[in-house]
User: Which sequence fits this backbone?
């Protein structure tokens, strides 16, 4: 049972953030997480259900200066097919290519994937590797207020973020990767489609003459949130990707993560996989 | 009249047998027009919902339904107290639909509501207050047989310790059970001690088979309505309408003649609809009390929680052979986790012991099962019926024995494989047997022997991907199974005056394609196109008796029955034609919708015209026939011996895998199957049947795992219960061995269960071939495989135990 009393489908951002002022609102975008979670009783639909799908300001994928802006309503399919993403952010496409199924990709949005804040959320790992920021909009008085927050500080726990109840995610902003930037994503599960990660790994950085700088490493499904791995990044920073370094970095990665046992895997197996797959990805990057 | 016009029309011979015939229900299903039980709504209908325990093992101290009864829109709320004449259901009559005094598993039914909407019914459930007193949980069958173990079915007592005055009855539900042993099976032929003494090599291993469930796309459901005269009409997905009609009558204490069951198209069966479950009886109670139609549909979560599972088994197998490759003996002990109540899962030993005693020639065989009560979910029948579990153990031992004596595993199997004409120690008589053809065909088409050696040599080479190939074979009933005094099926056939034929059969269509195959058989006899037939197969008020869809029996039994009725119709038609056209009956035949001269194919008369002539006369006659087929099989004796099926199906499947040693992921790349099906009737149908079975076997082997911890189901959803999805389905190469069974309809044998049986066993052998590591516990999930590859899996051992 739900307390749902009102359904609201705003057609502008103003209307939406105004509606959010009283906080007692459940936001609907693609519905691919909200529907099963509310039916299973894990999420309670609040007083107002607000469908944000008719707000044009939340759509589109554009280049704005040195940033690529992906609107919160961009579906996984739109992202996969967009020329800007294909050209500049291929690692995001790798993740989208392992995202659920075609049907869910057609409906599910990137804003939804971010706000669902699953430790295993597929797009979150490449977004962390790409230094993405989340843009949040609210209406404290009578005007829209926007601010950006790095994705690496956005998540606080499973399903929990630093977004307040009166804020709406409008887009993610991703700085254009520097020349020589390489990034890889790997998702490990029981089957290739329609699976929740057992673990996922993203690695990125700038590769010049075999040396990796600005190293970024992110792990999924090994902590309460998708997480950057600072020790692993430090071990990687400025290093030449030879076999000895790769072995060392993989060992640091294994020791850095503190996963748990659940229905998908034990902590022991997750740590082993963090080690083995980190090693595999770094070997691929070294050959790039 | 000129000469050209008088030239006789010739109808060339043609056959429907072995052709690719589209399933008759395919257009409706593919276009979304099929009306499943979910789509049927009766005027005035209420919605039924069940309150389940949530506790695993507890005494029911009190149930307060007053708030639920007071909720507007609620018509009926029932608990066991409202049904004083409740009778126990199930194979062992150990199970009241609404629980009395005690709950024994998570899914147990406490109360039920019929209301004007699903939402109101759900809300009413939340208003029911139940007080429990928790009891210790037995979730491991090994604990259930320990001396002094708590009893799952003690003599019933009320919450205050006083004896519950249940209506007197002799069942376990009434009297209790003084131990936790639900059922036991003990079989022997020969003398295993002598067999072991004659052996050069003896091995013993323990195998562990897990919980999986059917995952029918259509969740379970029923609609029940009593008319003003008290007659009951049920819309039900049962696969056993006639036997269940009688059982339902018993549970309702009513005359079975006043029950009618209509079976709407079914969204998947696979054995899951072979028993009567509490929800069905509860739905009837609600409809009876409400005096309104009541519809009850499971949610997907409920479908996981409250459906039967495949039988989990702990099994220790001891096998021996001589140096020359002759099998000497097999000794088998199994512990079946029966769960809280007894359904068909407990009887899987009927099938399992056949595989141990008779798949290969084995002079000495000793088999023991104890099915023991726990607080876990209970197992029902599931495609393959114990044979996946038995084959998993046997076929791994075949590879291991071959390796011990240094013999090629294919040669070892061929040496011990059964031939046509043999009668096994268990009394099964193989009139047709294509086993060796299956072995050779599957081996040749997969290049098995070369790849086995090549993969073994490649194990130590660098690289994280290791290839493996493995083989397994199966024996299963293919001509029905005489588990009841009768294994028969009736047919009624009628021809109308347009030469359209209506086939009225007792055989239920549960998606397996029976109506299409039966139509082919009838049209083949009557020389009619497949478009000239209508099948009626889903209403007990119309269709003749049948014992249900199980044991891969429908094509064989209902097929022979349909042919029998068609032959009688043909005889009658030819007699009429012979008289009218002054020819000998034996010179005439039916072909292409005409009566023809058998020798030349020359048209005598159009069949529809002949039939109209027959109808439009003062001594009119109809062509309507009936036939009842009972197979020449026998009921097993008390020692489980006897030729239980009229024919036996054989098959060999070769599985190829790639194992990623970095992750433990196993990719099934190719399945090469050879199946002795007697004869292919509908090539399209049988290919679909085999492919679907292979995928079901693949899920059992690699991904599907219903996780139960302390009686609690951890993953009652498709997110965490992982069915195989399209990208993982392997390439398949399927061959059919046509052994032309003498008793089979057009030579065919049953094949419904066969394709799912070997896959897990062959996968185990393939992983061993790839990595040198043998795995004894399913499923082969990445973590399990990775652990095994890294020596993190302790050796499984269950000390053989048998009930006293």
Assistant:
């Amino acid at each position: 049972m739900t307390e749902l009393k009102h359904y609201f489908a705003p057609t502008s951002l103003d209307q939406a953030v105004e509606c959010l002022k009283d906080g007692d609102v459940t936001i609907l975008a693609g519905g691919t997480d909200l529907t099963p979670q509310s039916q299973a009783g894990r999420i309670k639909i609040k007083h107002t259900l607000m469908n944000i799908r008719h707000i044009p300001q939340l759509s589109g994928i554009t280049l704005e200066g040195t940033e690529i802006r992906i609107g919160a309503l961009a579906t996984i399919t739109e992202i996969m097919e967009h020329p800007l993403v294909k050209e500049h952010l291929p690692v995001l496409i790798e993740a989208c290519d392992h995202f659920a199924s075609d049907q869910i990709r057609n409906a599910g949005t990137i804003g939804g994937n971010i706000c669902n804040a699953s430790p295993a959320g597929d797009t979150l790992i490449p977004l962390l590797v790409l230094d993405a920021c989340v843009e949040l909009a609210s209406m404290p008085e009578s005007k829209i207020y926007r601010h950006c927050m790095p994705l690496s500080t956005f998540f606080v726990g499973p399903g929990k973020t630093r977004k307040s109840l009166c804020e709406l995610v409008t887009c993610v902003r991703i700085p254009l990767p520097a020349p020589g930037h390489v990034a890889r994503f790997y998702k490990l599960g029981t089957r290739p489609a329609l699976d929740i990660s057992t673990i996922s790994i993203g690695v990125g950085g700038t590769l010049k003459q075999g040396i990796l700088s600005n190293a970024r490493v992110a792990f999924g499904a090994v902590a309460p949130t998708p997480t950057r791995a600072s020790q692993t990044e430090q071990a990687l920073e400025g290093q030449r990707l030879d076999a000895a370094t790769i072995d060392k970095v993989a060992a640091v990665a294994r020791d850095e993560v503190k996963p748990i046992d659940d229905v998908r895997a034990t902590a022991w197996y997750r740590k082993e996989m963090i080690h083995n797959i980190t090693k595999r990805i770094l070997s691929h990057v070294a050959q790039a | 009249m000129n000469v050209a016009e008088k030239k006789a029309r010739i109808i060339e011979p043609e056959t429907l047998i072995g052709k690719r015939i589209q399933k008759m229900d395919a257009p409706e299903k593919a276009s979304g027009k099929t009306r499943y039980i979910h789509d049927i709504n009766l005027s005035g209908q209420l919605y039924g919902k069940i309150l389940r325990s949530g506790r695993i093992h507890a005494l029911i101290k009190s149930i307060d339904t007053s708030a639920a009864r007071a909720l507007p829109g609620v018509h009926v709320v029932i608990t066991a107290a409202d049904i004083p004449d409740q009778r126990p259901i199930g194979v062992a009559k150990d199970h009241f639909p609404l629980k009395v005094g005690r709950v024994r598993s998570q899914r147990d039914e406490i109360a039920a509501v019929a209301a004007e909407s699903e939402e109101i019914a759900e809300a009413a459930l939340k208003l029911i207050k139940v007080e429990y007193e928790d009891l210790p949980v037995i979730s491991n069958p090994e604990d259930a047989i320990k001396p002094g173990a708590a009893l799952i079915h003690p003599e019933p007592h009320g919450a205050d310790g006083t004896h519950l005055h249940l209506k007197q009855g002799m069942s376990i539900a009434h009297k209790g059970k003084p131990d936790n042993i639900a059922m036991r099976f003990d079989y022997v032929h020969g003398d295993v001690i002598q067999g072991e003494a004659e052996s050069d090599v003896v091995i013993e291993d323990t195998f562990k088979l897990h919980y999986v469930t059917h995952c029918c796309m259509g969740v379970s459901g029923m609609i029940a309505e009593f008319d003003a005269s008290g007659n009951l009409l049920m819309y039900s997905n049962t696969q056993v309408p006639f036997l269940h009609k009688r059982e339902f009558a018993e549970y309702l204490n009513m005359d079975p003649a006043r029950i009618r069951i209509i079976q709407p198209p079914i969204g998947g069966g696979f054995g899951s609809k072979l028993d009567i479950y509490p929800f069905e009886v509860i739905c009837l109670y609600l409809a009876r009390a409400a005096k309104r139609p009541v519809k009850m549909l499971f949610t997907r979560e409920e479908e996981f929680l409250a459906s039967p599972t495949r039988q989990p088994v702990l099994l220790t197998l001891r096998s021996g052979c001589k140096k020359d490759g002759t099998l000497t003996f097999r000794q088998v002990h199994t512990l079946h986790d029966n769960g809280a109540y007894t359904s068909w899962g407990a009887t899987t030993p009927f099938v399992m012991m056949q595989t141990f005693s008779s798949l290969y020639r084995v002079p000495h065989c000793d088999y023991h099962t104890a099915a023991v009560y726990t607080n876990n979910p209970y197992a029902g029948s599931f495609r393959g019926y114990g044979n996946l579990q038995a084959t998993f153990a046997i076929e791994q031992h075949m590879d291991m024995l071959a390796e011990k004596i240094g013999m090629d595993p294919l040669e070892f199997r061929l040496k011990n494989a059964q031939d046509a004409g043999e009668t096994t120690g268990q009394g099964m008589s193989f009139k047709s047997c294509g086993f060796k053809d299956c072995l050779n065909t599957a081996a040749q088409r997969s290049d098995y022997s070369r790849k086995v050696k090549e993969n073994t040599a490649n194990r130590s080479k660098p690289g994280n991907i290791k290839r493996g190939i493995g083989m397994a074979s199966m024996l299963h009933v293919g001509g029905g199974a005489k588990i009841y005094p009768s294994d028969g099926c009736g047919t009624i056939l009628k021809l109308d005056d347009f030469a359209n034929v209506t086939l009225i059969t007792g055989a239920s269509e549960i998606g397996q394609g029976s109506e299409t195959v039966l139509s082919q058989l009838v049209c083949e006899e009557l020389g009619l196109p497949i478009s000239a037939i209508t099948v009626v197969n889903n209403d007990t008020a119309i269709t003749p008796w049948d014992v249900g869809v199980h044991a891969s029996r429908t094509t064989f039994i209902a097929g022979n029955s349909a042919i029998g009725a068609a032959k009688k119709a043909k005889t009658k038609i030819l007699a009429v034609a012979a008289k009218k056209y002054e020819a000998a009956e034996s010179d005439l035949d039916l072909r292409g919708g005409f009566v023809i001269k058998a020798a030349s194919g020359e048209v005598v008369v159009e069949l529809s015209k002949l039939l109209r002539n027959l109808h439009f006369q003062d001594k009119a006659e109809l062509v309507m026939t009936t036939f009842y087929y009972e197979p020449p099989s026998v009921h097993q004796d008390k020692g489980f011996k006897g030729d239980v099926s009229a024919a036996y199906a054989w098959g060999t499947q070769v599985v190829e895998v790639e194992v990623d040693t970095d992750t433990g992921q196993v990719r099934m790349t190719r399945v090469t199957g050879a199946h002795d099906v007697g004869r292919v009737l509908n090539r399209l149908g049988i290919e679909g049947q085999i492919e679907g079975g292979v995928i079901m076997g693949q899920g059992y082997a690699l991904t599907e795992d219903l996780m139960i911890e302390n009686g609690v189901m951890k993953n009652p959803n498709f997110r965490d219960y992982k069915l195989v999805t399209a990208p993982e389905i392997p390439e398949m190469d399927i061959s059919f061995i046509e052994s032309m069974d003498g008793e089979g309809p057009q030579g065919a044998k049953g094949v419904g269960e066969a394709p799912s049986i070997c896959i897990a066993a062959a996968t185990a052998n393939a992983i061993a071939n790839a990595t040198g590591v043998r795995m004894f516990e399913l499923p082969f999930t990445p973590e399990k495989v990775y652990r095994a590859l890294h020596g993190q899996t302790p050796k499984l051992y269950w000390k053989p135990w048998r009930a006293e």
Notes: The longest helix of chain B spans residues 554-580.
